[in-house]
Amino acid sequence: MAAKSSLDYFIDNNYIKYVDHWVSYSVNEFTKHSPEDKYLEFGLRNIHDNLEWIYSRPTTYHIYSELLMQGYEIYKRAKEHEPDLSIQMGFDYERVVQVIKYRLSYSLNAFFYPEYAMYFKNPERILNSFFIRQSSFRVRIDDIQHFLGGLCQYYFHYEDINNKGLQ
Alpha helices of 108-164 — where are they, by DSSP H? Predict the structure, then answer.
């Protein structure tokens, strides 16, 4: 009941405008148990309405890949439970896949390759992690989790995304 009330609040207050990955996570988890049209549509709109914003960000902002991948799972669920919903919304599957691939590829610009790490005080400590360039090359475990979360989710859905199995 609390989860449903929260999602209703998100919908009523247009939480899509916040481009928040936690919104995608919550809708994805909720629709696993209650795949109602209004929640599926909200989850799809969270991707669709923010797609060009996400694509055009000049930074490697780490939460976007998670938002997109959670939204991709919502898309899969919507196709299963309400096959025409995405078509009615004008949801552009091809563009979503293109943006997912672009953002994940772009996120590798924030990976501490040996060639980057060698210029820092303690290269071994940061090697093979991820950094936030706009925060002075900050490395934090939660940031690394967001980068890895998006990449792992992409790996999990790799076959579907690259074989165009869900159009």
Answer: 114-117, 123-126, 141-156, 158-163
